[in-house]
Amino acid sequence: ALGNRPGGGISPTPQVVNTAEHMDNKDLITQIDAGPYHTLLLTDAGDLITFGQGSSGRLGTGRSGSSSTPVKVYGPSNTLVGFALKWKHLQHATTGAEKVPQAAGDEGPTSPHGHVHRRVMEHAAERGLRAAGTSSGGEMKGRESWEISRVCCGGMFSGAVTYGGALYLWGSGSRGQMGFGNISDLWAPKAVRITSGTMVKNLALGREHVIAVTNEGAAYAWGKGDRGQLGVGRNEDTLVPKVVEGLSEVLRIAAAEDHSGAICHGDEGNQLFMWGSTEMGKLGLGTGVMSQADVNPTVVRAFAKSGEPYREPVALSLGQYHTAVVCTKAADEMDPEDKDPFSREVGRVWTFGGGWFGRLGHNDMENRFEPKLVRDLMQPVTSVHCGTYHTCAITYESGVFNEAHQRCGDLWVWGKNRSICEHEHGKVPIKFMQIDGHPKFSHVATSDSTTIVVTQMGVVYGWGDNRSGQLGIEGGKKEIPLPEIIRNLPQPPHLIDMGPAHVIVYTRNQVMLAWGNQSCGRLGLKDRRVEKIQYRPRGVRAEWTSIEAMSGAMMDEDEDGGKVTAASLASIGEDEEEEAESDKDAPESAYGDEGGLSAKDKMMQAITSGQQIHRFATMQMMLKEESEASRMGTLRRTEKELSKMIFSSLQDIMACPEMERRVATLAERCRTNFDTVNQCLGLRQPDDTREGIDAVIHEKLEQYEELCLILQMQVGYLASLSMTVHSEGEEVFIQTASALFHNLADHRTNCLMIMLMQRMAVKEIEQAKSADDIFQPSSKVAQLFKAYALHPFHLDEIAHSLMDSKERPNSLLGMVANKTVEEGQTFALNFDQYLKSPGIESKLKEEGSSKQEMRKDYQRELDLFLEFMKTDAVLALSKVVLPHSFWSFFCFCRDEIKEGVLVASDGDESGAEVDLKLMEPIFRLFMNCIVLPMLQNMGKYGGREVGLFEVENNNDPHVLWNLSVVIECLVVMMTGNYPKDNSGVEKLAARIRPDLQRYLLDSVTGISHDTETQLTIHTLLVHYETVPERIYMNAWLMMSISNLLISHMNKVRFGMGDPLDEICKKIGTWDGDILAKAQKEEVLYNLKLYPRFLLKEKSMVICPTSRCTVPNKMSSEVKDFGGGELTLEQGVNILSSIRDDNQFAVVEELFRDLPNLKATTFLELKAEFEAIYDQCSSGTHKNLMLSDKLKKGLGLVNDFIETDSNVEEMLETMGAVLVYRSHHSKYLHTMMHGITRLQKARDDHAKQMQRSEIELKALYHYSKSMQSPSRVRRAAEKTGGILRGDALKSQIAKLEEKMAFETSQNQKFVRFPLSELLDDKKVSQVFNELERVNPEEIFLTFNATTDGVKIHVGLNKSKQKNNLLEFVKVIFLPDEEIKKFHLAEKADTLNLPLDGPVLIQWRTVALAETLKQIT
Questions:
Q1: In 3-state terms, what secondary structure has residue 949?
Q2: How many Cα atoms within 13 Å fall on the side-chain side of residue 680?
């Protein structure tokens, strides 16, 4: 497949592929694709070159042989030439295309194998097609074929197009605009088929007609056609799609009430075609056609004739009476130095048609019958939008994008005064400045008299007509004169469009919402019983996210693709051996691409979430696409292989004690020898004398260590205890759990903590009556999760993402500081609070402003504060970084709440609101256990403990005040105690809650919670740890938890003879007096836990209650292995096996083997099976294996028919089996990876033991001779290192000098406390280790010798001069140096010692005087 290695194999480095034999020197390769076993190249001359494995005819050379060098494929009449020439032309048209970087978010088309191709030669206008028109959008990262690429609104109907090319319509069909050959309305989205196999890439909806553009560039139209707006050759309605005449290579499309337009790629660049009503010159064809009623698609020639550089159309929009077009520079006018990738997609605006109200922007109200450049708008424009009475345009600014990588710019408006929020009509473009802060804009949607815009930050504003609720603003307001925020959107729009009385939005998290007038079903809610006017966004019934849509089963294949022949049936099963052979070296990944869920996983997730499969064809496709790793045979083989690997790993673990025993023996010998040395040095272990509580606990220390180990390994005990203890025991419970699982850096301990919280959550959810009862602040789950979340192990990343205002300006504290310092805002929830704020209180005193004036200022500040909370605060909180374990726990809880049916639907067909209700308890955990505790304790979570020194040192009272108001607002939102004098806060909470809940919902989607599997792996890995785990508990807590367990033992233990019960009996009950004494003394204990239970118990099972990996005796279901010694095969059972209870196994095999089925009922399925059975069981093409399967399948289908079974019930069961197999496959993959880690741990353990044995042998010899090995001494001398042995010798030397000094009676000496020398200014400064010691504990002893003075620096904690000192340093001053001191100036200083690191800085004169006393 590399095309350059005749011998096959793998190339670790890039190699040149020699294609010279098949390519002219001038030819270029224009496209390349690589499959698993072969490669294809397309040249600009139309030649197809291929190489690689040739089985199954994949090379197209007419034979099945492989080719390791490039060969040319010859087809009928070189059919690829035309395609290649088109690409070559597009490459020539785009200057420097191969050097142009991609637009942000534009990943290009993706091949079936998952490879991403950069379409560098794609024409700029074609690239812009996906994001243009009234639904200005951008590319969505990681898009799937079922995700929405475009939304459109007509007069009383709506439409959407998916990235996979599916077209959905819903709403009024009174003029045939639904495209199904009738005039019926559709109350829910339905897929529209244009022609067989045709995929749609663009869509435009007029008032009552539809125009769709296919991937081939053809345009189809249907619906109302009385003014020729369809362009199909006759002026009449069309109920089914018809080809628009005269158009090809369509790039953009637009439609209005009775005219339409398209931009097509032609030989001389882009051309604009217009057709339909010529009223007021809105077709731009000149005065010569103004009298005609309608026109077929005709090229607008005015651009080419104008002589303007901006004359090549790239975008257009149509209003009821006028047209606007964006033209970029023609190819010959482009600047060759311009490297901006968007320069070919932006340009200047031209308008024509009716000029009333100045909507054409030419500084008059005249009609224009030909396009005219809007000269007062000089900035480059990225999109233009025509309302009925006004026009809007978004300008282009290089590098300005929103979070979804969509282009943003300034908004310019012109036309009718009420439509553009001005007092007078705008005859020329006016920069829109009616929104505070003058934001940039990403989207505009216009209709008759209504406008909606989306800012760069994702805030949605609207103004104009609201009679049908199309602005989403309640309260009976029929018109909104100035921009107001449209609330209740869970996420910023990714796509938006509007009709005269309704709005459709597709949000960034792939949810479609609609509001306004829902008559005729235009909102897609399906439910006709809801009120006609919908002010708040409602979920559109998302048919495109159904299993059928995601699988592509609803998109019909080629009519001949599913044809069944006897020859094809006879070959079924013959290629299995060949396929298995070809695939053995390239196993398919069953787990999706890195960084996101695969399409298969998303379909599985849809089934898990409750979506139903309705068609046999869908199930057949899913079975055929099922990964080989997830099929039953493969799963069984994997289990068998994994079982052998586990048993081998267990044997390796059981060999650990023998290796460790040798090391322990050597260590004991070394310890014995060093004990002897210590005795010689006079170093002895302190007497182990204990008194009081310490003595009492010490007797039970081993039992407490065993108790703690049991509670830690089997979290089921603590989970049961959590449901029985009340206020008096809650503190003991939380403290015990926090102590047991304190070491969260250890993966096993972390998993156990999560398992404990999961078991507690399950019990709390089981007892709850509704979701409102779950995870309230008083809940023990909430309390324990708070302790877990605020553990130092998690703090750094969470705290920095919330409060690092320096490095992360988008953090909450950073945004508060910006609003305070840069914009001078003052936050307050009520007027009294506003008057007490730091800036306002001083302002009142200094300026004497009246309260009435202050109240106006307060109202303005309050509006700004509420806006800050709705936008900036929500954005900041949605950027808080949480560890994966948090999301895993949230996902587990969400699934448990959903399974408990604690949230009821209110009839919203989309289920969007139900999903948000499921997140309410999770939202409480997020806010009450993470966000608020951190914000309320800035000193701890915003200070030096997490490295946020700038936060700790930020004493700006204005910033701290504003932050306190934000915190208060969040607390009010969580408690529901809204102030009576401020209804805005309650409305604010109604906006913030769903936004944050949606963020949490998006974050947990697709998260796996495989903590149980990870715990099993880490329980095995811990057996290679030779150091015990340590936990710290005080005596009072140890006594209290054992008392608590004993008092609730009947509800905590699993049965009689329970190990927890036995150990608690050994400890016994403590009385109140002892507990009170223990609480007073606060004795802390370091407990050692040895979780390597397999070495002792020889058993390991998964507890069915807690799902923990524990010894058999700790399981809730203890297995009886009978008498005799237990073997590993008997005692270990940690691998979950696949269940084999699939009653539809035969049907599964048939669905995989047979060609595409058409049946939708059991009777039709029976007929298809019978027809195929007849073909494969007789004649020359027999297939006895298949006929036998069909016979069994027919028997099963007959049973379904006789019992009147439901097709969907069978498909639901089959879907559940598919999901189960997929999950089991991932489980086995995780376990396999864990065994690999276990093998590495085994090797590391063996190396560690080997290294320890070598080092201990050397240490043993050293302990006998106190002589370091010569090679070590040489190395130390060479590098200047200090040996431990040398340090020991130094200690001995110090001890000898100390003893000699203390016993010497004839030497003169004086001693001074360092504190006294500092007070007398004799010593000016101390350094290094002396800095860290109390000066009153340091003594300097001056001792005269025959050749100088020794200064002994010693430590005496008793602070008594005559006590023995622990010597720190000896400083020697020779006589020749001392003589120099007497010659020093008064201001001179001297550093001692004279060489090496400085300890003390003396005043030289003072030192000389001190030395006189002993010399």
A1: helix
A2: 13
